[in-house]
Design brief:
CATH class: Alpha Beta
Radius of gyration: 24 Å
Number of domains: 1
Oligomer: single chain
Distance between the termini: 76 Å
Order of helices and strands: HHEHEHEEEHEEHEEEE
Strand order of the largest sheet: 1-11-6-3-2
Helix content: 25-40%
Length: 213
Amino acid sequence: MEDSISKEKVFREVRNALINRVQNPFSSTDLNKPVFHELKDDMEVVFAEKITASDATFIYCGSQEEFIETVYLVSTQNNWKNVVCHENRVREILDATRIESSKETELYPGEFMYITSCEALVARSGSIILSSAQPVSRKALALAHTHVVFALASQMHEDLKTAINVLEKKYEGNLPSFITSVSGKSLLNTPALKNIPAPTGVNNLVVFFIETE
């Protein structure tokens, strides 16, 4: 009996709510208006600050020529080895800088580096957008110890919405089946421990930012 009374009470309240509709107090709100404050600095500067705050390494290259030279110097100084790369264009760059690479993660049962390009950069969050269309490997992203990203200045966008809109135009409405973002090294947070390296995921993120003008 009590259940029946409770149900009737609920139905009555729902019916009254439908009959006596409350006017929307926010009817004048512009839903298309940006909700974020304007950036206080250039997008490139904001992105660099955000990405380095997450313990990533940001390397600025003023030209494509400087980029090639810098990749060679950094790879030599840091003894890059066990490199995995699935993108032909990126592998051409690695070949030009004498960096050996493979498409097979199985060749490196221990630690390996994963080198990719990217789809877009998001300044406001310091995020790097990747997709299966590049292509990138989910397995490699999960298992790589170090992730190196080659990014162009022309790929920089203020926020995620703008970046996704650009991707929708690029792929004519058919977005890749897999889209993800990277914002720094993988960390694990527990009630007892904070910001410790996660058991899977990237421990080091290196971004080469290349000016395209």
